[in-house]
User: Which sequence fits this backbone?
């Protein structure tokens, strides 16, 4: 399994990779994790002519080579030189070229990603949306959709507590959970909340600020400029136990991203009966049902965020009903065991097919 910087990062994509590796090992498969340092995009492109990377990959004796698609800029040339007898499987969380940014930059990323995707034999997708975005670039693929499991943090809360919590007096308690990078839309959330009465809401921000220190500083300045410092708590990165406590005491999970390939965090919040204010762009609609288990808002639209928050703050019975529906949807969703079983079966079939091919 090839990843950038190891498996200890906190984003949903790394969690997926981490659970996949652990689950495969639990099922008796031998998994070697190969790490490539993540650098600026241009520097990772230089990895294609790196003798060190080439030597490390050539030394692998594996039946199937899994690659996190995030590593695509480093692997194009190496994949083209790879032994054809060993299938290469790309684990795709979302395409970089689908993130919100200037069109000319995404055109560049799209060209690079297409070149990488064309070197891959098969795919693991985290959503149908992700599969569709890949096939829009390279045509029909051989792959499997294996949704992330939601059972990362144990949702130790009853339906009765979810209903009682919704009718608590006081402000609506929102929580944002995600790496502090621009794509996650924390700035949009803050602008939307600032348009609501100050006594109507509070926000707890859970996330690692180290991924983009400049963006984290921008957020600090924005909080001051909007005059909402008394209503916002920056909690930083939390342990699983602390995160579970934060989710259990909140009313709504609000992560209005610019784009999500799936959005594991929405599912985790739903386990605690939290309706989601979620990204309308990308695969979030495969887990959040608009108007039932949450609200899908267009990227970069603070007014839509303000409307979604206002409707839940002023109608606590609707909040209770959506919280119950969110918990029901969580319980009907595949577990991480289901996810790993699906991928293990797919990769085993790939290996067996390659072994008997003429």
Assistant:
């Amino acid at each position: 399994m090839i990843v950038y910087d190891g498996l200890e990062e906190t984003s949903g994509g790394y969690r997926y990779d981490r659970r996949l590796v652990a689950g495969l090992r639990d099922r008796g498969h031998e998994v070697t994790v190969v790490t490539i340092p993540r650098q600026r995009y241009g520097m990772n492109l230089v990895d294609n002519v790196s003798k060190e990377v080439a030597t490390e990959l050539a030394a692998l004796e594996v039946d199937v080579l899994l690659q996190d698609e995030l590593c695509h800029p480093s692997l194009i040339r190496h994949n083209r030189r790879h032994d054809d007898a060993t299938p290469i499987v790309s684990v795709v969380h979302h395409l970089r070229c689908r993130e919100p940014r200037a069109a000319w930059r995404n055109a560049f990323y799209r060209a690079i990603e297409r070149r990488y995707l064309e070197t891959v034999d098969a795919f693991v997708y985290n959503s149908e949306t992700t599969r569709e975005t890949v096939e829009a670039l390279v045509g029909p693929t051989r792959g499997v959709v294996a949704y992330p499991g939601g059972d990362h943090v144990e949702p130790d809360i009853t339906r009765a507590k979810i209903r009682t919590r919704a009718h608590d007096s006081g402000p609506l308690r929102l929580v944002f959970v995600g790496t502090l990078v621009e794509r996650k839309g924390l700035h949009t959330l803050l602008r939307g909340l600032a348009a609501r009465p100050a006594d109507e809401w509070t926000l707890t921000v859970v996330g690692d600020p180290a991924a983009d220190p400049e963006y984290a500083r921008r957020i600090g300045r924005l909080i001051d400029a909007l005059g909402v410092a008394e209503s916002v708590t920056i909690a930083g990165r939390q342990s699983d136990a602390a995160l579970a406590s934060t989710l259990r005491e909140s009313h709504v999970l609000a992560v209005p991203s610019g784009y999500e390939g799936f959005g594991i965090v929405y599912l985790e919040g739903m386990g605690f009966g939290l309706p989601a204010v979620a990204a309308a762009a990308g695969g979030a609609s495969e887990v959040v049902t608009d108007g039932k288990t949450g609200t899908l808002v267009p990227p970069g639209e603070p007014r839509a965020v303000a409307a979604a928050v206002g409707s839940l703050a002023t109608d606590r019975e609707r909040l209770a009903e959506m919280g119950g529906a969110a918990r029901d949807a969580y319980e009907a969703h595949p577990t991480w065991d289901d996810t790993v079983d699906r991928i293990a079966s797919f990769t085993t079939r790939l290996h067996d097919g390659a072994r008997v091919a003429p």
Observations:
- Residues 336-356 form the longest helix (21 residues).
